[in-house]
Amino acid sequence: MEVYHVCRVAVAPIRKEPSDRSEIVSQLLFGDRVEVLEKTEKWCLIKTLHDNYEGWMDYKQLEKISHLQFAKEKSHAYVTPAQLNNTLIAKDGSAYYLSAGSTLPFYQDGFCYLGDEKFEVKFTPVLPDKTNFKAKVEKTAQFFENSPYLWGGRTLFGIDCSGFVQAVYKLNGLQLKRDASQQAEQGKLVDFLASAQLGDLAFFDNEDGKITHVGLMLSNDKIIHAAGKVRIDPIDDQGIYNAELGRYTHKLRIIKRFV
């Protein structure tokens, strides 16, 4: 079985079970690398390289690559910027419209490559760098403002809470895990909300004490997060207050710092 693959479409659903009716647990973006663990005629069980996430997807949405292409980390450094117009032109002249934070494998001199296939890059890619994280993170987060909430989503047209912070961090040179509960295990603990800074992540739990929500702190009293849509709300020691609903919607558990 061919093991190493890359996502060949702009966005592809990763499902819980091998069925078109199954719940979408995450998405692959163009250029995301995966290992195929199991394969049926249509479906394959994959594990993502960037966050070790497992799920089922349609095999037709993947392109086979060699282990050498898969493992060459420096060749997968360039990504699409936080803008709408990220267009690739395929060899046959057709266009691909990519989401922000998609990877451009083997990018060089205006072209990127999926296996042997060559694509013309019609925009200026970015090389994410965490050195100016604080200066750039707010603008990146606000690019996604008003994006609709979508369970498992990772794009401007549908994103979940952990997918949102993962995308913002990726565009600023930091790799996060996929789910809020996994992300909460990363980073350094911030003792008090009053000490929270721009770019810190706040995590929220449910009645059972399980972390189910995450947002990005804009200051120690303001947060941007995906709930219904990507929105900015006030936050205090109790949690996030939604003025539209006139109540607290998420109970604060911990704050973590990554830079």
UniProtKB/TrEMBL annotation:
GO process annotations (BP): proteolysis
Signal peptide coordinates: none
UniProt cross-references to InterPro entries, sorted A to Z: NLP_P60_dom, Papain-like_cys_pep_sf, Peptidase_C40, SH3_16
MF GO annotations: cysteine-type peptidase activity
Superkingdom of source: Bacteria
Pfam families from the UniProt entry: NLPC_P60, SH3_16
UniProt record similarity statement: Belongs to the peptidase C40 family.
Protein name per UniProt: SH3 domain-containing protein
Source organism of this protein record: Pedobacter planticolens
